[in-house]
């Protein structure tokens, strides 16, 4: 731990200039930090917070953060410095412990009628501690006023039902996941359909009075093209309660338990409308290939179809969103229940350029021509491949720093910026995950069964 020696002000009497200089430096540093925070808030469109900061800290319009210096870059550079020094990334924030805040753990207590769940906390009380325990399902919204506790009366429910509910409720996503529509680069068709299903009916209810919204949307396409990313953006930006399930959610060794959990899932979803149920890798849950089907999976699939019918008939307020890499494996009966079946394709050249820019961040010295060349050379890359490419490119700089550190024993200055040579080097070590043949297979399927 660093030692801090506090010099009594008295002993500095002989050194007034030094003392004043230190004071000025500290003041200036504080002022600079405030301007950086202000800049960060504005860039992230947190305008109310920016205005409040400007007023409280009396920031003047005559100053602004210098170009290319912002909190984001500082944090990146600090992380890379830390990595170079300790071979691991620093932990910047940590979850506040219950004992530090004095807030009791709500997952173990029966919530009172007036209590609201703090974001990110457990959503229900244990049935063993409370006869009429309640679920707290938190609709996702930017507007905290919309955050309501949805009471769930378990009084007439069996113990099995309550146990299944306890498990399923863990899949409800209570928080803003920090992914915005803007992060889903080039996925405009899918974004528009998801907005039509969830965002617009709330914004313009009068337009949707006699118009049923989309109840089932299937996203399919090659791996890593942003299907899950879209779901995360919907969870963050849409004003619906969001529940994310996979085949693992329903795994049980007990006969009938998986179907029971499915029923409970749809029950809970209906209780907290508007709700989006997102099923990742739907093919793992409901494949249509009858020869490898087992009685249990047939029962499960039939329950799934029944439950989907329950939400698609009439205005249930529940949207079923699913994703798959293998749409051709899905049961045709299930397929027909998805009104919108949208192919999320590999990005074309223009989009590859945008995605690469998006993930590369700002610590680089590539120009427009370099970005164009990268887009040409990354034909067949998915969004996920491009993100991995950016990571590899950044690692090249880190590796260089580490080897310099090992040679010299110390590190000089900030790490250099990424350049085009780094990208070329990284590209030599990477191949796309999807072949042109596979892409063609998706397009053929879209031409036969798609709906967008
Ligand atoms: N269009 C895109 N724009 C920006 N980033 C993207 C895009 N597509 C993919 N990515 C990046 O790749 C990561 C992985 O993508 P994601 O998990 O959404 O792919 P997926 O289509 O769901 O893959 P899989 O089918 O294998 O589940 C995302 O978290 C994101 O960082």
Automatic annotation (TrEMBL):
GO molecular function annotations of the record: ATP binding; ATP hydrolysis activity; isomerase activity
Superkingdom: Eukaryota
Subcellular location: Cytoplasm, Cytoskeleton, Spindle pole
Gene3D superfamilies assigned to the protein according to its UniProt record, in alphabetical order: 1.10.8.60, P-loop containing nucleotide triphosphate hydrolases
Region (Disordered), start-end ranges: 97-131
One term under GO cellular component: microtubule
Name listed for the protein in its UniProt record: AAA+ ATPase domain-containing protein
């Amino acid at each position: 731990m660093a030692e801090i020696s506090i010099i009594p002000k008295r002993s500095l009497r002989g050194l007034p200039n030094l003392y004043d200089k230190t004071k000025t430096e500290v003041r200036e540093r504080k002022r600079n930090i405030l301007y950086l925070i202000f800049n960060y808030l504005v860039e992230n469109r947190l305008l109310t917070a920016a205005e409040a900061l400007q007023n409280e800290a009396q920031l003047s319009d005559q100053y602004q953060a210098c170009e290319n210096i912002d909190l984001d870059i500082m944090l990146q550079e600090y992380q890379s410095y830390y990595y170079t020094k300790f071979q691991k990334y620093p932990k910047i924030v940590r979850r506040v412990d219950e004992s530090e805040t004095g807030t009791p753990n709500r997952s173990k207590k029966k919530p009172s009628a007036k209590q609201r769940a703090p974001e990110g906390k457990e959503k229900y009380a244990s049935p063993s501690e409370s006869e009429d325990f309640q679920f707290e399902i938190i609709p996702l919204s930017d507007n905290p006023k919309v955050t309501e506790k949805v009471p769930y009366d378990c009084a007439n429910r069996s113990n099995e039902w309550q146990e299944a509910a306890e498990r399923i409720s863990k899949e409800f996503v209570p928080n803003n996941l920090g992914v915005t529509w803007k992060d889903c680069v080039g996925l405009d068709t899918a974004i528009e359909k998801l907005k039509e299903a969830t965002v617009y009916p709330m914004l313009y209810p009068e337009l949707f009075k006699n118009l049923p919204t989309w109840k089932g949307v299937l996203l399919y396409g090659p791996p890593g093209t942003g299907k899950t990313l879209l779901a995360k953006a919907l969870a963050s930006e849409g004003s619906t309660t969001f529940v994310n399930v996979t085949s693992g959610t329903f795994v049980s060794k007990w006969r009938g338990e998986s179907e029971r959990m499915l029923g409970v899932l749809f029950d809970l979803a209906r209780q907290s409308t508007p709700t989006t149920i997102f099923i990742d890798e739907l093919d793992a849950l409901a494949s249509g290939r009858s020869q490898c089907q087992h009685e249990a999976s047939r029962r499960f699939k039939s329950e799934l179809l029944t439950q989907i019918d329950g939400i698609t008939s009439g205005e249930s307020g529940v949207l079923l969103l699913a994703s798959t890499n293998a749409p051709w494996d899905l049961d045709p009966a299930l397929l027909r229940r998805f009104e919108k079946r949208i192919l999320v394709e590999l990005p074309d050249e223009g989009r590859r350029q945008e995605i690469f820019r998006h993930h590369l961040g700002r610590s680089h010295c590539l120009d427009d021509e370099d970005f164009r060349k990268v887009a040409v050379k990354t034909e067949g890359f998915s969004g996920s491949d491009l993100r991995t490419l950016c990571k590899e490119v950044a690692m090249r700089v880190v590796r260089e720093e580490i080897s310099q550190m090992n040679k010299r024993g110390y590190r000089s200055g900030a790490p250099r910026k990424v350049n085009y040579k780094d990208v070329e080097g990284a590209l030599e070590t990477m191949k796309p995950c999807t072949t042109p043949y596979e892409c063609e297979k998706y397009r053929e399927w879209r031409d036969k069964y798609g709906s967008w």
